[in-house]
Amino acid sequence: MAGESSSEIIKHHLTNLTYGQKVDGSWGFAENSVEASQMGFWAFNVDSLSWSFGLGALFLFLFWRAGKRATTGIPGGFQNFVEVIVGFVDTQVKDGFHGRSNLIAPLALTVFCWVFLMNLMDLVPIDFVPKLFALMGVHYMKIVPSTDPNITLGMSLSVFFLVIFCSIKVKGIGGFIGELTLHPFNSDNIFVKLILIPVNLVLETINLLAKPVSLGLRLFGNMYAGEMIFILISLLPWFVQWTLSVPWAIFHILVITLQAFVFMVLTIVYMSMAHEDH
Length: 278
Description:
Strand order of the largest sheet: 2-1-3
Helix content: over 70%
Order of helices and strands: HEEHEHHHHHHH
Number of helices: 9
Radius of gyration: 23 Å
Structural class: mainly alpha
Number of strands: 3
C-alpha cells in the first residue's frame, strides 16, 4: 500500500475479499471494489465469512473444553471466567424472557460471545493481518466480520425467522395473523374492526420488519464507525497515533462489549414477545 493516497488507503481497508461471477462469466476473486460490486447478489465476502465461522468455532471449542474440564472442586481461572459469563447471560434471560423454552439461554449465550469475539477483532492493528495476507498474494482482508452488513443482517435475519417460527408455534397461524391485524387498534364494532384491519396490518408489518433491520444495522453502524476511526488515526504521524489510538482502543472495549450486550438483550426481548400468548 506504499505510495497510495489517504482515500485509496481507506478504500483498500474497507474492501472485502470478494468471490463471485465476473462480467465475462468466469468465477474468481474481485481485483477491486468496482469488480466486487459488479458481481451482484451471489458474491461472497470470503474474509467476513471465514473470520466469522472461525471465531464461532473458537467459541464452541473454548466452551466445550471448559465444560469437559469443569470440576466441582476448586475451579481454575478459565472455568471461573466461563461461569461468570454463563451466570451473567442467565440473569439477563431470567429478567427479560417470560416464557418457557430451553432454547433461549443457549441462544443468548451464543449471540453474546460470538458477537463479542467478532467485535474484538477491531482491536487488532489494522495493518497487521492484511499485510500478512498480502505476503501470500491476498490483497484484501477485512478481519472484523461485524463491520460487514451481510454478516450483521444475516444474524439478525436468523433471529427474525426464529421469532416468526416461535410466534406461529406458540400462538398458531390464527393467533399470529390476529396479532398482525387486530393490534394496536381494535373495536367492538365489527364494521370498524374490518376497516382497522388493513391499517393494523401495515403498521404491524412495518414494526415486525423493522426489528431485524434495526438489530443488524445498529451493530454494523457502530462497529463500522469504530473501524473508520482506527483507520483515520493510522493515517496520522506515528507520535500522534499512539496518543490517540490507545485512549480510543480503551474506550472501544466498552463499545465492543456494549454492542454484543445490546444484540443479546434485543434477541431475548424479541423471543420473549414471540412466546407471549394473549
